Give the backbone structure.
Amino acid sequence: MKILVTGCGGFIGSHLLDRLLAREGVSIIGWDPDCKRISHLLDHPALSFRQERLGGPESLARLEQDVADCDWVFNLSAICHPSRYNTEALRTIHVNLFEAYPVIELAARLGRKLVHFSTSEVYGKTIASYLGGYDDVDPALYMMNAENSPLIMGPVRNQRWSYACAKQMLERLVYAHHHESGLQFAIIRPFNFFGPRMDYLPGIESEGVPRVLPMFISAVLRGIPIQLVDGGHARRTITSVHDAIDALMAILDQPQRSLNHIYNIGNPRNEVSMRELAEAVRQTFVRVSGETRFARHPIEIVSSMDFYGPGYEDCDRRIMDISAERNQLGWSPSRELESLLDETVAYYWRLYGASS
Ligand code: UGA
C-alpha cells in the first residue's frame, strides 16, 4: 500500500509516519517544508520525503504525479495556530483553502482514497453559549455531532473565524466531490490532540504563540507566569495523539466501513477548563521532576485583546459525540488526561528541564 502524506513533518504527521512506517508493506511519499520532527525517519527505506510545501512554484505537477502513484492520500498540511488566524487572515485562508484544495481535486480526479484533516473548530461556538450557559440545558445545545450540529461562527470582523471558515469550505468541497464524482473520503475533525513534538516551545525552540499546551509548558520551563486568556474559562476536551493515530489506523484498515463519513476524533472524558489545565500542568511538573516548587508556579490572567489582538473570539466549549466513531470504526479513546500530560511534560522535561 502506498500513501501520500502532506504535512508529514508536523506534530500529527510525525506520529502518523512513526506508526505507518512500522507496518509491513506500507510505503510513504511525504511532503513538508520542515523535517525536524521526522529526522529519525528520513533514512527509512519506505519513506520518500519531499522537502516542499503545497503551493510552491512548480509543485502542482509533482503533486499530481505523487497522488497518481498512491492508493491513499492523507491531507494534513495546514496553518493551525489561533494566534495567526486574526493577525494573518489572508495567509491563513490562502494556505488552508487554496493551497489545500488541489490535493482534494487530484484525489477526486484520479480516484484515490482521501483522509482529509479538518478541525473541531468548524463547529464554532455552542448554541448554549448564546443562551447563557450549560446548566440545565439539553446536551444537544452544546454536544458536537457531525450529523446534526449547526456550525456557528462569529462576525466577519472577528478574523479568528478565517481558519474555521476555510476548513468548513474545504469540507464542503470534499463532500461535493463525493456526490458528483464519487470521491471516497474520510473527514477528520481533531479535538485538541496533545503529545510529544507539539508545535514548538516559544522562547526555547522558536518564537511565536503556539497552542495552549506548549505555551504552558514553555512558561514553566522558562520560569515565567502561565498566561490564562480571559480567565481560562474556555473548555476543551483533550485527546492523546496516540488515540488519534489509532483512529486513523482503524480508518485505513477497514475502508469498506470507514469511508464517506465525517469523524469527531476526541476524548469526551478529558474535558477541562483552561484554568484546570494550567493547574494540571503544574501538578504534572511536580510528578515528573519530583520538585514541589512547580505546584506554586505563577498563573496570571491576560485579556484576549492583549494576548491575541483585535479580531479574536474564543470557542467556548468542545465536547463531542463519538457514538458514530465507536460504531463505525470500533474505535474509542483510552488515554486519560493525567497520563497524556505525564507523557508530554516528561518528554520536554528530558529535553530542556532535567539538567537545569
Ligand atoms: C486550536 C486550532 O485552532 C484548531 O485547529 C485545532 O483543531 C485545535 O486547536 C486543536 O488543538 O485541536 P484552540 O483549542 O482554540 O484551537 O487552540 P489553543 O491555542 O490550544 O487554545 C485553547 C484555549 O487556551 C483558548 O481558550 C485560548 O484562549 C487559551 N490559551 C491559549 C490560554 O489561556 N493561554 C495560552 O497561553 C494559550
Remarks:
- The chain has 14 helices and 15 strands.
